[in-house]
Structure prediction request, 317 residues.
Amino acid sequence: MSTYNQPLGGNDMPRFGGPATMMRLPAQDTAEGLDACFVGIPMDIGTSNRSGTRLGPRQIRDESRMLRPYNMATGAAPFDCLQVADIGDVPINTFDLKKSVQIIEQHYTDLLSHGTIPLTLGGDHTLTWPILRAVKDRHGPVALIHVDAHSDTNDHMFGETVAHGCPFRRAHEDGCLVNDKVFQIGLRGTGYSPDDFNWGRDKGWSVIPAEYCWHKSLAPLMQDIREKIGNTPVYLTFDIDSLDPAFAPGTGTVEMGGLSTWQALEIVRGCAGLNLVGGDLVEVSPPYDPSGNTAMIGATLLYEMLCALPGVTRNER
Ligand code: MN
Ligand code: MN
Prediction:
């Protein structure tokens, strides 16, 4: 018998039954004893357009029911070597965004004190800023791989400095990021000014627009990113709207011309070998996801993040 937690198998309980946790893993209240944990942030009060991401964590967990423990493509066997559980949701204050980011930062400071690697089920993208503040306190400034249709570097939205279009501007101001190791992948669409995407470039960030990614494998890009990041601790933040709406329509701020699901897999799998200290999958909005496919893709990418963590063993074919 393995000493590690295992997802409840489909031969022990029908896929449509059992606990509604991520991958039907055991639930526990804290991150104590966990090498990695899944944690939800049911929040949409930072969104600027369509809401609904407050229901994201619950729907991602539901759609994770089909995920089996072994990664057939990479050979990764995360449940053979990591202790993983679902530690539930962060109790945000849904009436107060500014209080919510304080709650999130405190919650992640606590869970990081256990030495765990958090993989977060969002929730709108505002949440990455307080996570990065907690990560900085634990690990120092980090490299960042940010996959998104949008740069999320607005100074403010509707006069507010805390919003889902501002997290990486705030994280930069707080000294959370290593500027020459920040990579924004998948940016596209219309802007408020011709140089909307240059704010990060001016700080030394690498911006890889969606058009650069069209019609090609992203494996070489990820190899280049791995070489540039080296051993620096790195955080992966994945906004589901980076994907083309043909694949992932269930989100709040949709842009056409995005990444494919196989490119998303190349990006996350391409993080294997990096010193990942955390990751998130944000902006799944179940009210706009009647098939559940957007949440299913989100759940799968979170599993792939788990497979890419340091120390995960791989079975050779
Ligand atoms: Mn975003
Ligand atoms: Mn976005």
Observations:
- The domain at 46-85+116-307 is CATH 3.40.800.10 (Arginase; Chain A).
